[in-house]
Each structure stands twice: as C-alpha cells, then as structure tokens.
Amino acid sequence: MALNVETLSNLERRISISVPLQPLEAQIKQRLNQVARTAKFSGFRPGKAPMGLVNQHYGNQVRDEVYSAAVEKSFGEAVDEAKLRVAGFPNIQHKPFDAASETLEYTATFEVFPEVVLGDLSKVKIERPVLEVGEADVKKTLDVLVKQRVKFEPVKRAAKKGDRVNVTLKAFMDGEEVESTGDNGIDLVLGEAGRMSAFDDELIGGKTGATKKFDITYPEDHNPAQLAGKTVGYEVTFVSVSQPVLPEVDAEFAKSLGVEDGDVEKMKAEVAESLKQEVAKRVSAKLKEQVFQALVESADFDIPRILLETEINRMMQTTQQNLKQRGADLANIQLEPAMFEDQAKRSTKLRLLLGELINTNGLHANADQVRAMVDVFSQSFERPADVVTWYYADHKRLDEPAALATEENAVSWVLSQAKVTDKKVKFDDLMGNA
C-alpha cells in the first residue's frame, strides 16, 4: 500500500492511497465459493451451479464488497501509520471499481483532531460561594411552604392585594373585542407575578357582582410583542372574592411534610438539612460553571467543522423536541444552524478540553466514585436500594453516573490548580430568589 498525505489547512488532510488488487483476487474467489454453496439457480440444486453462472450473477457485488472492505482497512492502516487522529468520517473518492486494473487508487479527505493544550490554570481566579444555613433561612423556606398550601375562603368585602378573585373578562383593541372568557370565570391572585401590576391595581377594591371598565397601555418592550405599545380596554365582572387562609406551622403541617409523628422541631431540622444539601448543590454548580469558563478561556485552537456541525444538529433536535413537548407548532418555527453556532462552539471546545484534561491526568472515575454518584441519584426515589440494583443490573446504565463522577474529578483538579477564594453570599442570591 502506497500513500501520500497532504495538509489542506490547520485541520484538514487529504490522503492518496494505492492498494494492489492482486491480493484481493483470492478474497473475491473465496467469497464467490461461499456464495456458490447456497445460491439458488433454476435447474440446479443448491451448491451445484457452475462458477461461471455464480460469477455472472454475483461477481460484481462480491468484488464491490471486497474492494470496499479493502478501502476501509487500508484507510485505517494509513492514518495509523501517519499518526493522524481522524475527526468524523472521511470523504472518500475513487474511480468506479470495475475500472481498476492493477491497483485501486482513492483519496480520502478528512479533518483531524486539534492539538489541545491547556492554558496556565494557576492564574485562574475562582470564587467559592460560602453560605451557612441559619434559622432565618429555615423560616423563609417554611414561609414558602406555608404559602404553597394556602386555601381561600369567600368574603363579602372589597378585594385587596393577596386575595383571589374569580372574574369574567372581555378585552378590546381599537373598539373591537379581541378576547373573552365568556361565562367561565378565571381565578386571579392579586399581586402575583406574571401580570402587569397596573392590571391588578385596577381590580383592587372590586366587590362580588360589580363590573369595572378600564384601559391598560402596555410598554413598548412588552412580551408578548403583539401587545407592545398598545392600549387594551378591559371589562371585568367580579364573580367572587376570597381571602387567603394560611395553615398553622403545627403538628398537622409537619405531618403534611412527611414527619409522621408531627414533631415541629424535627420538621425544622429536616428542612435545615434539605437546605444544606441544596446549598451544596448550588455551590458545586457555581464552581463547575466557573471552572468550565476558565477552561474555555485558557486555550485557543481550531474546532473540527464536522464536530461542530454534529453538535449544532444535536442542539437543534433537542430544541425541536422541547418545543414539541410544550405544544408549540413547529410548522411556524424556523430553526437555523446559525442560531446555535456560538453555543455549539463552546460546548465542543469544552468537551475536547475536558477529554484532554481527564486523559492526561488520569481523572477517570473509579468504582467507588461511580457508586457514590449512583447513591446520590437514588436518594430522590422512594426505594433507593431498588434504584441502585437497577443501575448495576446493566453496566451500560452506569455510563451517566461514571461520566458525571469523572467530570467532578476534572473540576476538583482544576480547583486544585487555580486561585480559589471564598466569598460570602446571601441565601436569596445563591438560590436565585432575588
């Protein structure tokens, strides 16, 4: 086998390969003999047809199969000999197989993986969020849990902020009705997020049976855009007004959170422990985010186009599936590859960097680390032991926990190299409640 390697660009290569055909003739003959044993022809018992007839019917097919296998094998040997790491599939071009005489000549154009060199991570600055869960945080969480279990009871007074009103509604634009609930009332909690405060302000003071008309002018940057800058007239009829009734933080409340004996102090301790676990997850996520960004910024190299296109396609498919699950009409949504290119570049670059970091420093997760990750997964289920058994029943199921554990090793390694400083943070800021 003769070969010649050309460098077309930083990552693109072309190999010209010449494969002698004589050694392949024996393979073709052997394959035809195998076919002849089972081939069926009219007038002949299986395996008794003349080789000339077998060759006439199957010769071209067998030759093409043998030549294709020779191309695949010789390409693999060529890139090994040239010490090239191929990214994606090669574009192979050759003359028709039946035109080959003494040699089979073809060219293979492909991309190679870039040389990935990590930057100086000792100069990277990373801030580790620090937060001690206190009584105030537990109380704030309990307040949220209490509000989630709110009940409403009808009242005869005028509506105020925090009340739930049931109303029928009509909306008008330019004098024409554009929306109506008909006779079906809708529930609105006055002051809740998701609506313009000006709308709820108009409903405060309304009483059961009353009707109120008012106009709302939406800002120019309002979402949805069809209302941006528009004035909408509303006609609202109050069907009922109900006030919130919050449950007491007592034994019954504790039982509703899974504390069987209703011990309120035990409930608070469990809430505190749950918060500590969530804080640890958030801190870990913040650190990982900073580490990944540091890795991406630390190195500069070209990304194989084939890997980038694969990642773009994956992102587009994921987005389409998510939109479909949300009930979106995909016929009216046009996704373009350019919309995902920047994100795909970052994720592909990060994947290459992590691979280099993990392989160079031997950071693949060991069995104990994988098991620890499986245990973490199992804790969110009612019967953790059954979940662990399920994972280990098929070792392919361990791929995900193994990958995450390995990723954690990589993050820890970078943190050991970087300049890490602690930074106190507020509970709401870390939890995203601000």
TrEMBL record:
GO terms for cellular component: cytoplasm. Its main location: cytoplasm. Residues 264-415 form the Trigger factor C-terminal domain. Pfam families: FKBP_C, Trigger_C, Trigger_N. The keyword Isomerase applies. Involved in protein export. Acts as a chaperone by maintaining the newly synthesized protein in an open conformation. Functions as a peptidyl-prolyl cis-trans isomerase. It is found in: Cytoplasm. The gene is tig. It catalyses: [protein]-peptidylproline (omega=180) = [protein]-peptidylproline (omega=0). InterPro entries: PPIase_dom_sf, PPIase_FKBP_dom, Trig_fac, Trigger_fac_C, Trigger_fac_C_sf, Trigger_fac_ribosome-bd_bac, Trigger_fac_ribosome-bd_sf, Trigger_fact/SurA_dom_sf. This is Trigger factor. Residues 1-144 form the Trigger factor ribosome-binding bacterial domain. One of its GO terms (biological process) is cell division. GO terms for molecular function: peptidyl-prolyl cis-trans isomerase activity; protein folding chaperone; ribosome binding.
